[in-house]
Design brief:
9 strands, 6 helices, binds ligand HQG, three-stranded antiparallel beta sheet, alpha+beta
């Protein structure tokens, strides 16, 4: 499978498994799982027919490991990034002393005032390395990298979670814990 086709499937899966399953008449359970057969049968037939083999390829080779199967590959879900409310049963995890967040200049004034907010997602997304934050910020323009004092934050009582694909998640980052 070529990279472009795999990226197209990944974007489609991100859309239906994180944001809008109802667009294709798909239902997710409370933990965000979709039935694999149901997903395949409801995939729009616009030239790219989805099958189990293609799904397996995307799950295994996806650059950020965005999706996972259950044990017998009858269900699939996104590991993070949802805007719809799903219970991922994330385990609270002690973060490193610092984490990073990539954003763009136009948001900085607001972030200085109210810290990092979830905006439309279920969590604020952070990464353990600067490179990832640069990539995240670059999706919107010239990246601005914020250093998050996650160690102090956690000791002050804020909770951190690590998704199955190693994205650090938290509910908000007040501005006092951000190094601009
Ligand atoms: C910004 C991708 C104004 C925030 C990435 C970001 C990530 C504020 C945008 C994942 C703000 C939200 C998530 C405030 C935050 N005022 N702007 N108070 N607080 N913002 O897409 O972190 O490739 O929801 O800086 O890799 O950019 O899809 O979050 O610019 O892990 O798997 O508001 O999405 O993953 O944007 O990206 P997003 P994000 P995938």
């Amino acid at each position: 499978m070529n990279e472009k086709a795999a990226k197209g499937i990944s974007k489609f899966l991100s859309f239906v498994l994180r944001h809008s399953p109802e667009t294709i008449g798909l239902e997710l359970d409370e933990n965000g799982w979709a039935d694999v057969e149901d997903l395949i049968s409801k995939c729009p037939k616009d030239g790219s027919i989805l099958n189990l083999e293609l799904l397996e390829f995307v799950v295994e080779n996806n650059d950020k490991k965005r999706f996972v199967f259950n044990e017998n590959k009858t269900k699939i879900r996104a590991s993070q990034g949802h805007s719809i409310s799903v219970e991922l049963n994330l385990v609270e995890t002690e973060p490193p002393e610092f984490l990073y967040h990539g954003t763009v200049g136009k948001f900085l004034e607001n972030i200085r005032k109210e810290g990092l907010q979830k905006i439309s997602r279920q969590h604020v997304h952070l990464s353990k390395d600067k490179e990832t934050a640069v990539k995240v910020g670059s999706r919107r323009g010239i990246p601005q990298i914020l250093i998050i004092k996650s160690g102090i934050m956690q000791r002050d009582g804020f909770k951190f979670y690590l998704s199955e694909n190693n994205v650090w998640l938290t509910d908000k980052v007040p501005e006092t814990y951000i190094q601009f």
